[in-house]
Amino acid sequence: MASPRPYVPRHRASSRVPRPRPTALTALLLSLVLGLSASAAAHATAGDEGARVVEEERLDERTVDLHVASPAMDDTLPVRVMFPPGYSAEAERTWPVLYLLHGGRDDYTSWTRETDVAGISAGSDAIVVMPEGGRAGNYADWHNHGRGGGPAWETFHTEELWHLLQTEYGAGDRRAVAGLSSGGLGALNYAARNPDEFSAAASFSGLLSPRAPGVRQLLLSIMRSEGLDPYALWGFPGADEERWIAHDPLSNAEALRGTELYLSSGLTGLPGELDEPGGDWDPLNIGEALSGKALRAMEEELDRNGVPATVNLYRDGTHSWPYWERELSSAWPMLMGSIGARTVPK
């Protein structure tokens, strides 16, 4: 596996030729010019350095946690990467990529913690990338990014991380994205907002219409519960509605033309065939009913625009992992086919 490349200074000190001593005024002007030049050069070097892997933590023979220093996020963030059987960073070939996005109030470890993603992916030659997305990051560059220090998740995932995967880990030019709940919203937004960059997108119980009654309130309340300013995300509803529209897959269905789609959700949020009898009911199951309503509207909008999609809108089922693991398995052949992943021996 490729190790992170050490930083090499772009400019090295050169020998100086003695010069006549300048006058006081000349010395002052010269020091100002040199100071400004040095500041500009330092800024350019820092900007050019880009995101970089500062640590690799191997978990097993296929799985590594990368710790990525991100200029866009102004932070170092973890990314769990599961390499396919037979992978080698030194191989002459490249490898297709699947991003798996986690849901709200969770983190990058969730897919390996809650599902058998290792077994599901073991027969394909794709790199599975599970990046940190924040407990309420909503997979977006926030409205206050650059002013109030808000995060830039979309830039981190679709630009910085993607560049690292291609330059350091042999990723090819084909990728797909899938996610659950708010990660399902992120998957469709990433595909719609970055045309031709994702071959396929899958949403499992995704909140696909963040402007819809109930969904908007749910998103804002989750952010408040995490101690975050909900209006730092996309601004104030109504006053900043264009930003909300720009991150609403239902309003941007046409932008998904040419992207293979797999969309699924329960309709009622009530316990279904994969729920344990007598289990506790989670208030988040209201989110399942909201996602089901949003998916029904999304299916109708895609039909109106002539955009094909595979839709599994099942009646009962809670907002929980047994359903999301099942849906990942169902979507897997389409996701792998879209990026040209080949079958490999397990």
From TrEMBL:
Residue stretches in coiled coil: none
Signal peptide coordinates: 1-40
Keyword terms: Signal
InterPro entries per the UniProt record, alphabetical: AB_hydrolase_fold, Esterase-like, Mycobacterial_A85_antigen
Gene3D superfamilies tied to this protein: alpha/beta hydrolase
Protein name: Esterase family protein
